[in-house]
Amino acid sequence: MNKVILMGRLTRDPEVRYSAGDNSQAVANFTLAVDRRFKRDGEQTADFLRCVSFGRQAEFVERYLHQGSKVVVEGRIQTGSYTNREGQKVYTTDIIVENIEFAESKAASDSYQASRSQQTQRGPAPAASSFDDAGGADGLDGFMNIPDGIEEELPFN
To answer: What is the pTM of this model?
Structure first.
């Protein structure tokens, strides 16, 4: 079974193109930043996954999603390869989106966007990620932040 469910934020506005021909179909490409649950020194704190949606779903993506939108994506992993202009073989991994849903309210999204634009106006963000260890954005998702070291207290760890 090839099934993946991801929650993350769009890294930039989606790119939408329309196929040629009589039955023109929308194709939306976007990258989803998915926080890693555990962080190790020197490693990145998120994975950046390319997603592709088609048809009416791609039109939905074009209309309602933008950079910073927090979504849940359900789909499948598809790998492929091609030869670039320099003659080198390039391998690809994409998430083919079967379902997409908003992962936060419009108010939370607007609040997140406002805080991101204030950070941009103030200058570069601090070295730490704006996402906390619980996967939320500075507590804006309505969930309590889990304190450090709590994992040792859990019986099923």
So the answer is: 0.67
Structure tokens at 96: 């083919």
| Tens-level pLDDT at each residue, the chain (157 residues) | 999 999 999 999 999 999 988 889 999 999 999 998 877 777 778 999 999 999 999 999 999 999 999 999 999 999 999 999 999 999 999 999 999 999 987 777 677 767 776 666 665 544 433 343 444 444 455 555 555 555 555 455 4
Identity of the amino acid at 104 = E
Whether 8 and 50 have beta carbons less than 8 Å apart is answered as no
Spatial distance between the Cα atoms of 39 and 116, rounded to a whole number of angstroms: 22
What's 40's DSSP letter? -
Mark residue 68 as left, alpha or beta (left: phi above 0; alpha: psi -120 to 50; beta: remaining): left
Q: Which 8-state DSSP code applies to residue 137?
A: B
Q: Which domains does the chain have, with CATH numbers?
A: 4-104 (2.40.50.140)
Question: String of b and e for 107-131 (b: at least 16 CB within 10 Å)?
Answer: ebbeebeeebeeeeeeeeeeeebeb
